[in-house]
Write a structure and sequence with these properties.
The chain has seven helices and two strands; from the N terminus they run βαααααααβ. The protein is mainly alpha-helical and 288 residues long. The chain has one domain: Di-copper center containing domain from catechol oxidase (di-copper center containing domain from catechol oxidase), CATH 1.10.1280.
């Protein structure tokens, strides 16, 4: 029977407590750091060699759909009442709204070093030490909204701009694609500075700290963010029912993308699944 992922702003105090407890237990068991390592391993950019499975590629959405599901399964092995909630950043748009409460993810970092000092994932609590992809130290960091040079989270209009594109993805199937839902949602824009950070990418920048770069999984908000991105893919699928993942077939030997992207029926590493098999997960979970 399918379970329901809910808006984080609707969670009860008990539901928040159970989610936090399950997250901390996954961390204590050492499983959480394996997720950080996996994301780092598959964070391959356009300019690098080899297969791109997780970012700057058509498989951005199915890869992260499967990735979030893996974490959710780990949580549910501890407490089967827990699901990954989603953070609707088009509505909860301030550093004081959900999910930045002391009983859930805690708030922004302190001014001096961006260390998160509140909530259950603060380093001072002793339960959340950063050990993979360490850049700033052993503590979780955030700079919500970039206080010294503020900018806004993506709006509903920004999301609608992506949702109304009825083509899943287009050539050249990377961060430079100007058409297609996938890259518009992933958010690789043109130009420089804040105007080039769109949708998914802009949220990572807005949170700042640990959410910048391949080790962004170190911040638990990563999962709430990607659950909402997954929900947006679901909404796109419902709106464009005749559309599906592209490319249908892998680019040939003469293409610059040959061997660099995953076609619809190809295996999506590191799992024994294809983008096609991940297009419909309604038997596993739904959104409430």
């Amino acid at each position: 029977m399918a379970y329901t992922r809910r808006d984080v702003s609707t969670l009860t105090a008990t539901e928040k407590r159970r989610f936090v407890r399950a997250m901390l237990e996954v961390k204590r068991r050492g499983e959480y750091d394996e997720f950080v390592r996996m994301h780092l391993d598959y964070y391959t950019a356009d300019g690098e060699e080899g297969l791109r499975a997780a970012h700057m590629t058509p498989s951005f959405l199915p890869w992260h759909r499967r990735f979030v599901l893996e974490l959710e399964r780990a949580l549910r092995r501890i407490d089967d009442s827990v699901t990954v909630p989603y953070w609707d950043w088009t509505r909860d748009r301030t550093a004081h709204s959900a999910p930045w409460t002391d009983d859930l993810l805690g708030g922004t970092g302190r001014r001096t070093d961006h260390q998160v000092m509140t909530g259950p994932f603060a380093y001072a609590g002793g339960d959340w030490t950063i050990s993979e992809g360490v850049t700033d130290g052993l503590f979780l960091t955030r700079d919500l909204g970039r206080a010294r040079n503020p900018f806004d989270l993506p709006s509903r209009a920004d999301v609608e701009w992506a949702l109304k594109d009825g083509t899943y993805d287009t050539s050249p199937w990377d961060s430079t694609a100007r058409k297609g839902f996938r890259n518009k949602l992933e958010g690789w824009g043109t130009g420089h500075g804040t105007s080039s950070w769109l949708n998914h990418n802009r949220v990572h920048r807005w949170v700042g700290g640990a959410m910048l770069g391949g080790a962004s999984v170190n911040d638990p908000v990563f999962w709430l963010h990607h659950a909402f991105v997954d929900l947006l893919w679901t909404r796109w699928q419902n709106r464009h029912r005749d559309a599906h993942y592209l490319p249908e077939r892998p680019p040939g030997p003469g293409s610059a993308q040959h061997g660099r992207i995953v076609a619809r029926r190809q295996k999506l590493p590191p799992w024994d699944e294809t983008p096609q098999s991940l297009e419909d997960v309604s038997r596993i979970y739904r959104y409430g």
